[in-house]
Every structure is written in C-alpha cells, then in structure tokens.
Design goal:
Blueprint lengths: L2 H5 L3 E5 L4 H12 L3 E6 L2 H8 L5 E5 L5 H15 L4 E4 L17 H28 L7 E6 L12 H21 L4 E6 L7 H6 L11 H17 L4
Helix pairs in contact: 2-8, 4-5, 5-6
Length: about 230
C-alpha cells in the first residue's frame, strides 16, 4: 500500500501543532493528503497554520487545563467528522531553568503532570468513541504518545519532565493492552533531541547543528504510525 493511500483523507489530531515536532508532523500529514486538526494555546499561531492549507483545522486550547479538553474534542471531531489517529505531542518541561529534584516545587511537578500525563489521558478518553469507530475504515486507529529517552534514563535537572514522561510511557502500554483487541493501538514515540523551542528553553547553550530537525523526526513518526495501522490486533 502506498503512502498516499495510507493517509488519503485520514483524520488526524496533533496537539502542540504550531511549532517543533507538532508543526512538522501536521505539514507532513497534509502533504500526504490527510485532514489534520491541530491544538495549541496561541490563537495567532493556530490561525497561521490553518492558513497554510484548507486541509487543516485548528482549535485554541490547553490540554493541561481540564476545562479545555472536552471543548477541544467536540470542536475537532465536529470539524473533522471523525478520527483515525491522535498524536499527543504537546508537552511541558516543568520548571525552567531546569533544577534539581530536591529543588522542584510541588506546583511545578503538578504542572508537568497536567500537561504530560493528565492532558493526554483526558483527551484520549474524550476522543475514544471516535477512535473506536475508525477500524471500520480497514485499519487500526492509532494513538501516539510522544515520550523521551528521559522517560527511561535519569538525567540530573530533568526530574519533573522525566517522571511525567515515564508515567506517560507506561500508560501507553496499559492503554494498548486494554484496547488493541478493539482495533485501537497505542504506541510511544521518542523523537530524539531536536532543534525546537522546547529544547532551546531547556539547554540554551546547545549547538543546534548537533540536533535533529523536527522534519526528520516527523517522517520517522509517520512511519511508526503506518506500521501500527497495518499491525493486527494482538
């Protein structure tokens, strides 16, 4: 099956879709014929991405805010008419500048958990009905949770981010164990160290030339989704 046939008119939601990996993924999907819904917090950026293609619809909202999640889901499903793939990409670093675990305030940890664990959980639950209908199109629905090597490796200063991404990684496995038999597959994706605003905020002295371009990681992400779409329920 060709890439065009895989993605033609597939309906995909990408959170954090106006910069970094999210934006690169949205653009790659549009180039393949998908219909894309993006979510981000800044209205001007959402509108700018919408103007790039009539295959993009955008909603302004913050997945870390409980009260935003249901309206995000309702608006995007209404405008897309259904859902085949969800990419939970929006993330929070936690406290910036990075600080030791002992110096991490509980409120900063709560904020990281809200964005990196509770946000994806709430949004997935809100969209689950639409995802369960997607297998009737002939392939698995797919939910991708964007994680990090910090989810499995301990890096000094990255405590809030690392702990929240570790929780997201394990939650992904639980979701998949429970819903794979119903045609909804869950996968985690570590995009690597990318040249993005988030990486610059965490490590402002890093040399951008040593980092991956988000466009490369987006291509890798889509390849993972394509493989997962074709994979039989376990």
């Amino acid at each position: 099956m060709s890439e065009t046939n895989v993605w033609k008119d597939r309906r995909v939601i990408v959170t954090g879709g106006t910069s970094g990996l999210g934006l690169a993924t949205a653009r790659a999907l549009v180039s393949r014929g998908a219909r894309v819904g993006i979510v981000a917090r800044t209205r001007e950026r959402v509108l700018a991405v919408e103007r790039e293609s009539d295959r993009v619809v955008g909603v302004v909202g913050d997945v870390a805010r409980k009260e935003d999640v249901h309206p995000i889901a309702v608006q995007l499903i209404g405008r897309l008419g259904g859902l085949d793939v969800l990419v939970n990409n929006a993330s929070s670093l936690g406290p910036v500048p990075l600080r030791s675990w002992a110096d991490t305030e509980c409120e900063d940890l709560e904020a990281a958990l809200a964005a990196n664990v509770l946000g994806p959980h709430r949004l997935t639950r809100a969209l689950l009905g639409a995802l369960l209908e997607a297998p009737s199109r002939g392939s698995n629905a797919v939910v991708v949770n964007v994680t990090s090597d910090a989810a499995v490796n301990a890096y000094a200063g990255w405590g809030a981010y690392s702990a929240s991404k570790a929780a997201l990684l394990h939650a992904t496995k639980i979701w998949d164990a429970e819903l794979a038999s119903r045609g909804v597959r869950f996968v985690s994706f570590d995009p690597g160290d990318m040249d993005t605003p988030m990486h610059a905020a965490a490590l402002p002295d890093a040399d951008p030339s040593t980092l991956k371009r988000p466009e490369r990681s987006a291509e890798e992400l889509l390849a993972v989704i394509e493989t997962t779409m074709r994979r039989g329920a376990s």
